[in-house]
Design brief:
alpha/beta, binds glycinamide ribonucleotide, 7 helices
């Protein structure tokens, strides 16, 4: 059995999709949700699904490596960042080499980097009058949005689309593909 931890700081709609996708899976189980926001709605979803949660703060995350023991306790093999906005520290990247993935709401390498998250991304895409946008799922390294790209999917943007409508289209793609891509990685690697 492979165990996944999801790191999420917000609504957690992607986290919910991942939990739903693997609910009855015999080989993969989501058994921990980690957040830096004690009020994040994703924690409610975890509770409803009987999944353990863990709240972190900056000191804990960056000035110690204690989270590794926590991840060990839950036998975590793989980490999915689903709306988690903090940079992953080197000790964690090294401990989970090629076993941490992030979903980004644009076609990297465009519209990535520090500060590029959520609506900031969609507004930038809108202002640049892009004709298409999409999602990128990538391995995580020590830099924002720079790890190797695993998967991208695109959607078109019409001239009437507002940033809000762009966000909706992109989120739909995220929900459609993120769990499946995680499943494929887990099936094809020994992570
Ligand atoms: C998602 O759109 C995800 O791509 C984005 O945060 C949203 C979380 O939504 N992540 C980033 O912008 C990371 N740079 P959710 O909480 O409903 O899953």
């Amino acid at each position: 059995m492979k165990h996944i931890a999801i790191f999420a700081s917000g609504t957690g709609s992607n986290a919910r999709k991942i939990v739903d996708y693997f609910r009855d899976n015999e080989h993969v189980k989501v058994n921990l949700i980690i957040s830096n926001n004690a009020n994040a709605p994703v924690l409610e979803m975890a509770k409803d699904n009987g999944i353990d949660t863990f709240i972190i703060n900056r000191d804990y995350f960056y000035d110690s490596t204690q989270i590794l023991s926590e991840l060990n306790t839950f036998a975590i093999d793989f980490i999915a960042l689903a709306g988690f906005l903090w940079l992953i520290p080197t000790y964690l990247v090294n401990a989970y080499n090629q076993a941490i993935v992030n979903i980004h709401p644009a076609l990297l390498p465009k519209y990535g980097g520090k500060g590029m998250y959520g609506m900031n991304v969609h507004k930038a895409v809108y202002e640049a009058k892009e004709k298409e946008t999409g999602i990128t799922i990538h391995f995580v390294n020590e830099k924002y949005d720079e790890g190797a790209i695993i998967f991208q999917a695109t959607c078109s943007i019409s001239s009437e689309d507002t940033p809000k409508e762009i966000a909706k289209k992109v989120l739909q793609l995220e929900h459609q593909y993120f769990s499946k891509v995680i499943d494929d990685i887990l099936m094809t690697t020994n992570k």
